[in-house]
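# nightly structure sweep
# worker-07 picked up a monomer target from the shared queue
# config: single-sequence mode, recycle default, output format = structure tokens
# input follows
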Amino acid sequence: MQVAKLKKHHKAKIISIKQVSLTQYFMKFVPLDDFSSKPGQFVSILCGGLTLRRPFSIASFDGNEIGVLFKLKGKGTEFLSNLRVGDEIDFVGAVGNGFKIENKRSLLIGAGVGVAPVFYLKTELEKMQIPSLLISGFQTEKEIPEGIECDKICTDDGTAGLHGSVINYIRNMIEEFKPEKIYACGPKIVLQNTAEIAQRYKIPCEVAMEKEMACSIGVCRGCVIKIKDKNGEKTASVCQDGPVFNGEAVLW
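# output follows
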């Protein structure tokens, strides 16, 4: 167990960091040793003298450079926002279970910083020539991150793209695009609605859960959710059993 954890411990050099929206930053860094990941997984970064690492979904990985999108929320993200090119960071990853990519016409849904892992997923689907449509939702135009290309955008206040929550357009996207599988990441309300709508249309759905984490290695049990099993229900840790789950299995 200890050996497995050590293999996931990395140092990396920052090669770019940029403010890409009113409150969001995009940071790229290169690990100093071997690293691999798949869409839906995350990295857990040590932020200065803070005891607990901070988890961030991987937004891009080209075999060399890792990209993460983060929103200013507290001391951890404030520390990261003040880093500069050439600085070294300490991180653990890739952590958790990612999306199960299938050769199926795919609808991708992201909300807020939840757009990060589905953006990464879309780049991988495109490499595999799997048809996909990415629709994302933000509160306002100023929150739309530069460099994250989406097929369709919604804003709660109507300042860009479709007016309203991304939830309001899921059925329309299903009717128009006719997906064979749905992938989503964002706040609980978005994931719950996506999973329930997908179930009504009998479309397989995977959701990448957003949850506050402490240890990120499944020990503290601070990110536990309930999911269905053959005996009714059981608990699962988002950091280790997820963050990606079958949407139909989650007990919302």
